[in-house]
Amino acid sequence: MKGPGGSPAGPDLTEERPIGEEERSSIAAQVARLTVPGKVELAVKGNREVRRILSRDASSMVARAVIASPKLTEDDIVSYAASSLTHEEVLRFIADSRQWTANRQVVSALVLNPRTPPPAAIRFLKSYQTSELRVLSQNRSLSAAVRQEARRLLAQRH
């Protein structure tokens, strides 16, 4: 794969290994200089840190490539679902996946993420207990639609 300016991209973008804070900003700068096709290619081949950076990219094409990466793990999905910086396309895709929403941690992260599209978050509220719905109905970081639906379900149960 070619990096910016046609130079080969270093193995540092595809090799899975621990990454320090200084190196993280260097990788983010490298990724930012790539074109959309370069980012799409890197989303499939890149390491966990690169995929995390790309999951926040403004392009929905890049977001779809990140979520389709064969290297995705359950931890990645939980991390994307919980991050308020994750692209809405990624959140919508996670919410639509039965495999990933079978994990209660993923569902909880999606519902609590203010960037999750309200229809996707609302779909999971029926599985919440009364005490959890009460907390959600008071949570001001959630969209008004999600809070209102939590209140509606709470009223139905009483």
Question: What does it look like?
Answer:
By secondary structure, the chain is mostly helical. The protein has two domains: 1-71, no CATH class; 73-158, no CATH class. Helices cover 61% and strands 0% of the residues. Helix 10 packs antiparallel against helix 11. The longest helix has 14 residues, at 144-157. The protein is elongated and about 55 Å long. The chain starts with 20 loop residues before the first helix and ends with a helix. The model is unreliable at 1-11 (pLDDT under 50).
Attribute tags:
single chain; 158 residues; mainly alpha; 2 domains; elongated; disordered N terminus
The span between the termini is: 59 Å
Tally the helices: what do you get?
11
Rounded mean pLDDT is 89
What spatial form do the alpha-carbon principal axes imply? elongated
Strand residue percentage: under 5%
| Estimated helix fraction | 55-70%
Radius of gyration: 18 Å
| Total separate domains | 2
What order do the helices and strands follow? HHHHHHHHHHH
